[in-house]
Specification:
It is a single chain. The protein is globular and about 55 Å long. By secondary structure, it is mainly beta. The chain is built from 2 helices and 9 strands; from the N terminus they run H-H-E-E-E-E-E-E-E-E-E. The chain has a domain of about 100 residues: Metal Binding Protein, Guanine Nucleotide Exchange Factor, Chain A (Beta Complex). This is Protein yippee-like. It comes from Poecile atricapillus. InterPro entries: Yippee (IPR034751), Yippee/Mis18/Cereblon (IPR004910), Yippee_fam (IPR039058). Belongs to the yippee family.
Length: about 160
Amino acid sequence: TAALGALLRCFPCERLCGGCAVPPGALPPAMPPPARRRLPPAARLPPRTFRSYLPRSHRTYSCVHCRAHLARHEELISKSFQGSHGRAYLFNSVVNVGCGPAEQRLLLTGLHSVADIFCQSCKTTLGWKYEQAFESSQKYKEGKFIIEMSHMVKENGWD
């Protein structure tokens, strides 16, 4: 404690007034208590957890922005889809996504009722869910999900 007192006596006093004769272990009378270091808001948040974790032994797709798991490779139906902003993949099922309200859109393959999907963790819009297809040749898409390639990354076992 004597060394700590010497530190408190020497360094703060020399910076403020050039040194003083405060006894070891006592703070100078004009010296404010040390300021507490405030953490940035992101550092105070609890660690991010996802609703579902896909097995590490499987090839998976994750959100490129926050790395939340999105889909297993086994759920992939087609790689030849077009999203709003580029190429997209069609999946049977996905995890860790939220769904917005359904609306009718005229897409390249005709009129569909779709609902935008977003990452539950970072809230980025990823693509959409096909709610209803109005043409009989497009009925296979109902209940399926489009995720744009620009919003996902491949993880676990891709060589």
